[in-house]
UniProtKB/TrEMBL annotation, chains A, B:
<keyword id="KW-0560">Oxidoreductase</keyword>
<keyword id="KW-0285">Flavoprotein</keyword>
<dbReference type="InterPro" id="IPR051264">
    <property type="entry name" value="FAD-oxidored/transferase_4"/>
</dbReference>
<dbReference type="Pfam" id="PF01565">
    <property type="entry name" value="FAD_binding_4"/>
</dbReference>
<dbReference type="InterPro" id="IPR016169">
    <property type="entry name" value="FAD-bd_PCMH_sub2"/>
</dbReference>
<dbReference type="InterPro" id="IPR006094">
    <property type="entry name" value="Oxid_FAD_bind_N"/>
</dbReference>
<dbReference type="InterPro" id="IPR016166">
    <property type="entry name" value="FAD-bd_PCMH"/>
</dbReference>
<dbReference type="InterPro" id="IPR016171">
    <property type="entry name" value="Vanillyl_alc_oxidase_C-sub2"/>
</dbReference>
<comment type="similarity">
    <text>Belongs to the FAD-binding oxidoreductase/transferase type 4 family.</text>
</comment>
<dbReference type="Pfam" id="PF02913">
    <property type="entry name" value="FAD-oxidase_C"/>
</dbReference>
<dbReference type="GO" id="GO:0016491">
    <property type="term" value="F:oxidoreductase activity"/>
</dbReference>
<dbReference type="InterPro" id="IPR016164">
    <property type="entry name" value="FAD-linked_Oxase-like_C"/>
</dbReference>
<keyword id="KW-0274">FAD</keyword>
<dbReference type="GO" id="GO:0022904">
    <property type="term" value="P:respiratory electron transport chain"/>
</dbReference>
<dbReference type="GO" id="GO:0071949">
    <property type="term" value="F:FAD binding"/>
</dbReference>
<dbReference type="InterPro" id="IPR036318">
    <property type="entry name" value="FAD-bd_PCMH-like_sf"/>
</dbReference>
<feature type="domain" description="FAD-binding PCMH-type">
    <location>
        <begin position="37"/>
        <end position="216"/>
    </location>
</feature>
Length: 462, 462
C-alpha cells in the first residue's frame, strides 16, 4: 500500500524518535475538544525543528500521504481530527521561545508553544500578549494562528492575525515560505502570513512566528451594567468607544435569559445588581494611569446612568470584585453540569443587527421547541455572539435541525457562521451560508495551487 | 489581431460611454506619480458598477486582453502604468458612498471614492477614518486597498488592511468574490480580503468595500523633542507606548541631517529648539478628554526630560504650533525645489535595527559619494524609514547604484524593500532582497490559480 510505504519512508528518514507507530504512542489524545469522532493516525510525527517538518511534508507529498497538523487539540470544530488514513503531525516538541526583542517589542516562538507560556514570558519581560481564551493552558500559538483565534480582548487588540509580524511555514512540497520578519509594515508582494492565518492547516504547516508584544496595562476599570433594551446596549458601546480614551478592552453582553439561567444553576455566582434587567454588559477598560483612568471611567459611567442608557451599574471595587463579574461571563465552562447535551453556535453579524438577528433566532427556536433553554451572550464590540440551545430530551450530535435554524438566520443577515472557531468538519456543510460559490471556488483554486496533491488536512473547510 | 477583437467586443458589449478609444479620452492622465514611463492604453474602460467590471473582465479573459486597473494614479512604483498592450480599467465613475452605518461604525463605499471624501464623510457622521497620506485628495480607496496604504497614523490605527471589514472584488474570469460584510470577526474559510489587499491589481479588481470607522479623537497633544542618540529614540518610543494610555498616534523620527537640510533650504520652516541635537522626534498622542489628556502628556514629557531620554522639548501650545512641527516633517513635499533629482527609498526593519541599518546605509553611500545629500526620517513606531539620496550631477532615472546599496543593506538586516509603497515595476527586480524564491513561487502559484491567463496587471510585482 502507498500509505504503508509513506509511513516506512518517514520512519527511515526521520527515525523512530520522531515517527511513532500506533502502539508506540500509548493512549495519547489525538482528537480535539469538538466531541466529533476521530481515528487513530497511521503514524504520529513529532518533528523537532522546521527542517524535520519540511522533510516530513516532502515525503508525504511524494507518497500522497495525507497529513493532519495538530497543536494543543483544543479546537471546537474537528479541524484537527483524523479520518484514519492520515499521519498526525504534532508540533508539541517545537515549543521554545526563540527570542524576546524588548526594543522592537517582539517575541519569536516555535508553533507548538502554549499560549499561556507566551503570555507569561511576555509579562516577565514587561510586556503584554493580549490574545486570551479559556484553553490558554493547552492551546498552541500554531493552532491560534491556524484558526485565527479571537477571545475577549479582540475589541481592543484584534484577533490572532493582528498579533503576528512574521510567520514561517512549510508548504506541502516541503518548501519553507515566509520568515521571521519583525517589520510592522511590509508591502513586498502578497502577504502569505494573512493567507495562512485562519486556513486551518489546509495550506501549510506553521512552524515559527514573530509575535507582536504590547505595553502592559497597569490600570483596569470594570463595571457590570443593567440596560433597558438592545438599542441602549449599542449606544453604550458607541459612547464607551468614543468616550473612554484608552479604549474599551471588553464589552461582553448577556441577554437576561443567559444571566438568569446561569445564576439559577451555579451556586457560586451572585447577581451583581438588585433588580432584573433585559440586558447586562460587562464593561472593561484598561489603561496605564490608575488615578486618571479610574476617575474618567467613573465619570463616564455616571453620565450613562444620568442619561438612562444604563439603568443600574456596579463598579468593581477590587480585582476580586471584577473577577466575580467575569465568573458570570465565564459560566459556559460549567455547561456540562446542567446542559450537557446543548448545541453551541459562534456567529457574527454587523453590530447594528446583532439584536434583531438574535431575536429572530430565538423566536424561531422557541416556536419549534417551546421548552428549550436558549442562552445568548457574546463580544458585542466584534459583532460576535454565542447562541446556546438545549432542547430537553434531544441528544448531543443530533442538532441538525437547530443548526439549520441558526445558520439560516445567519445567512439572511449576511452574518458569519464562524466568528472565531473556524469551519473544520463541523461547519463545512454550512460554509455556503456565509460564502458564495465563487468564494469557495477561489479557495479551492488557492488550495490546489499551494497543495496540488491535497495532502494537507483533507476534508476540512470544504 | 486578438487585442483589436477584444477591444471591439468590449465596446460592443459595454458601449462607447464606458469603453473609450485613444483619441476619445483626450489628454487625460493615464500614468502614476512614479515618473516611470507609461504608454497609451488600447482603450479606457470606465465601468459604472460591479456588473460592468465583471462583464469587462470576462471579455478581457476571453480575448486574452491584459488589464491595468487604475484608481487615483498617485502610486510611486509604476504599479498602474501601462506597457501599451493593455486596456486601462478606471474605477473613477464608481465613487459613491453607499451607506454609513452609525451603529455598526462602518462606511460602505465604491472603490473609486477618493480617500479625502471618505475622511470628510466619516467626520460629518461623527466618526474618524484614520488612514491618511499626502495624496488624500486624489488617491482612491480601491488604490489604498490594492497597495495596502500606510501613512502617519499606522502606529495607532494600522494600515489600510486594518480599516476594511468587507471587500467585494471581481476576478479575471468575471466572478464576483467577497462581499459587503460588516463583521469584525469572520473565520469562515480563507480570508480573500487580506490576500487581495496589497496585491497591486494582479489578482482581482476591487470594486466595493466596507470600511471600519473609529471614534473621533477630541484631544491632541504634540511635542517636538531633541534626543542625544538612537538608543534614546527607541527608549522614548517604548516608554511613550507604555506610558501614554490612549497610545501614540504619531512617532516621527528625523535624523539631524534631514532636519538641518530642510531648514536650510525652506525659508518657511523654523527650528523648534534652540540648540542642535542628533535626533528629533515629533510625538503625538490623541485622546478624548482634553484636560486629563494634556496633563498626562505634559507629565510624561517632564519625566522624559528629567531622565535625560529627551534632551530638550517643545510642547505645542496651539494647533498652529503643532502644524509648524508637522511642516518640518512634511518637507519632502518640497524636495522638487532643492533636490529634484533625488532617489527615494521606503524601507522597513525591526525597530531595534533601524538605527544600525540607517547608519550602515549612510556609511556606504558616503564612502561612494562623499558629497551626497543623505536624508533619513520616518515612522519609527512601524520600523519604517525613508532614505533620500541626492548625488550632485547624477540624473534622475540613473539611480541603480544607489538602489543596490540601499537594498543590499535591507537584505542584510532582513528588512523590507517596500514598507508602504508596494513593488509595482520600480522594485520588482529587487523583490528577492526581501522575499525568498519559495515565497515568489507561491505568489506565482496563487496568481496562476486566480488569474490563469495572466490578464491582470501583467509585469507588476514579479
Amino acid at each position: 500500500m502507498a500509505a504503508d510505504e509513506g509511513v516506512r519512508a518517514l520512519r527511515e528518514t526521520l527515525g523512530a524518535q520522531v515517527v511513532m507507530l500506533p502502539g508506540e504512542f500509548g493512549d495519547r489524545r489525538v482528537e480535539d475538544w469538538s466531541g466529533l469522532p476521530s481515528a487513530v493516525p497511521l503514524a504520529l510525527v513529532r518533528p523537532r525543528d522546521t527542517a524535520e517538518v519540511a522533510a516530513a511534508l516532502a515525503l508525504c507529498t511524494r507518497h500522497a500521504l495525507p497529513v493532519v497538523t495538530q497543536g494543543g487539540l483544543t479546537g471546537l470544530v474537528g479541524g484537527a481530527n483524523l479520518r484514519g488514513d492520515e499521519v498526525a503531525l504534532s508540533l508539541d516538541r517545537m515549543n521554545r521561545i526563540v527570542e524576546i526583542d524588548a526594543v522592537s517589542g517582539t517575541m519569536t516562538v516555535e508553533a507548538g508553544t502554549p499560549l499561556q507560556v507566551v503570555q507569561e514570558a511576555a509579562s516577565a519581560a514587561g510586556f503584554y500578549f493580549p490574545l486570551d481564551l479559556g484553553a490558554r493552558g493547552s492551546c498552541s500559538i500554531g493552532g491560534n494562528l491556524a484558526t485565527n483565534a479571537g477571545g475577549n480582548r479582540v475589541i481592543k487588540y484584534g484577533m490572532m492575525r493582528d498579533q503576528v509580524l512574521g510567520l514561517e511555514a512549510v508548504l506541502a512540497s516541503g518548501a519553507v515560505v515566509g520568515g521571521l520578519n519583525k517589520m510592522i509594515k511590509n508591502n513586498s508582494g502578497y502577504d502569505l502570513r494573512h493567507l495562512l492565518t485562519g486556513s486551518e492547516g489546509t495550506l501549510a504547516v506553521i512552524t515559527r512566528a514573530v509575535l507582536r508584544l504590547r505595553p502592559k496595562p497597569t490600570a483596569t476599570a470594570t463595571a457590570w451594567c443593567g440596560l433597558p433594551d438592545f438599542a441602549a446596549v449599542t449606544t453604550l458601546l458607541t459612547r464607551a468607544q468614543a468616550g473612554l480614551a484608552p479604549g474599551v478592552s471588553a464589552f461582553e453582553v448577556m441577554w437576561a435569559g443567559y444571566h438568569d439561567t446561569v445564576l439559577a444553576n451555579l451556586d457560586t455566582l451572585r447577581a451583581p445588581l438588585a433588580s432584573p434587567h433585559p440586558f447586562y454588559v460587562l464593561l472593561e477598560s484598561v489603561g496605564t494611569d490608575p488615578v486618571r483612568h479610574g476617575e474618567a471611567f467613573e465619570e463616564f459611567l455616571g453620565t450613562m446612568l444620568e442619561e438612562g442608557i444604563v439603568s443600574d451599574a456596579a463598579l468593581a471595587s477590587s480585582e476580586a470584585h471584577a473577577q466575580a463579574f467575569w465568573a458570570i461571563r465565564d459560566a459556559p465552562g460549567e455547561y456540562q453540569r446542567f446542559i450537557p447535551d446543548h448545541a453551541a453556535y459562534d456567529v457574527s453579524f454587523s453590530i447594528a443587527q446583532v439584536g434583531e438577528a438574535a431575536a429572530l433566532c430565538e423566536a424561531r427556536l422557541r416556536e419549534r421547541w417551546p421548552g428549550a433553554t436558549i442562552l445568548v451572550y457574546g463580544h458585542l464590540g466584534d459583532g460576535n455572539i454565542h447562541i446556546v440551545v438545549d432542547v430537553p430530551g434531544m441528544p448531543k450530535h443530533d442538532h441538525d435541525d437547530i443548526d439549520r435554524i441558526v445558520y439560516d438566520v445567519t445567512r439572511e443577515f449576511h452574518g458569519s457562521i464562524s466568528a472565531e472557531h473556524g469551519i473544520g468538519v463541523k461547519k463545512k456543510h454550512f460554509l455556503r451560508q456565509s460564502r458564495t460559490e465563487a468564494d469557495v471556488e477561489s479557495m479551492r483554486a488557492i488550495k490546489q495551487a499551494l497543495d496540488p496533491h491535497g495532502i494537507l488536512n483533507p476534508g476540512k473547510i470544504f
